[in-house]
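Structural biology now treats backbone shape like a language. To illustrate, our science desk offers a sequence and the tokens encoding its fold:
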Amino acid sequence: MRDIIRVFPRRTKATPDDALAFTTPPPKNGRHDYKQLTLDGDVPDWRDAREVKISVTFSYDMQKAEQLAESWHRAGFPVTMGGPAFNIPGGNFTPGMYLKHGYTITSRGCNNACWFCKVPEREHGLRELPITEGHNILDDNFLACSENHICAVFEMLKTQPQKPIFTGGLEARLLQPWHVDLLRESKVERMYFAYDTPEDFEPLIHAGKLLRDGGIKNTSGSRAKCYVLIGFPGDSMEQAEKRLIDTWRAGFFPYAMLFRDENGETNEDWRQFQRLWVRPQIVYSNLKNLALAQ
């Protein structure tokens, strides 16, 4: 990995920040802003790399990715492109390669068939991967894995210096008491569920009860969170607000996820609405004003 440049069309919290990770064309002055050490303990010169890999997560970033590929190719590097946007199944997970150290993926795929999600089509079902270290789990559907795999992941989490975070999301319909025991014993910092379709609501209520009965309290809204899909075709802001409020009543801190079309486009009115339901301080203020906060 130390001699491979990885290039990303956009920077997120999960983007690697080592000396060979870029979101830009090759620096004209020969310098790279990032000076983090590699696993080998030194700072490599990107100009000594043997190849460039462009990683594209979202299809609407493809044009920028192609421009980046061309600029790195002109700099004399062999360039290849890949990632979820190409609808090709992912392989085994390599820590630090395409995600910052601390993030890990222990399984790929999902056996559901949600209309808005391309994961089942891309991954062709669920498969468990060799477990690599990390505290932030990004699996597509972690709770759909086998009991042996889930228990093995929690054993790995015991060795991590940071508390677990399940950013990839946990499916409320699959949550069972023994999952709650593992989450509680691991002192989970944050876990995210999802409310994407009307069928998700009753399982969400049940999951909230399981968490409370299992000793995982959420009085501050800091542990159990829930992505709530908004702005999809046929949705209204009144309906979306009701779902967000109902999510809070079910015991989860709501986090509005704005629907994007295939071109990545969103509606300005919906973007303004989302801003009211995405920042924790604003969300809590909204809920308090609605006399819902306990």
About this structure: Residues 4-86 form one domain. Residues 62-74 form the longest helix (13 residues). Residues 30-41 have pLDDT under 50 and may be disordered. The CA atoms of residues 92 and 270 lie 37 Å apart.
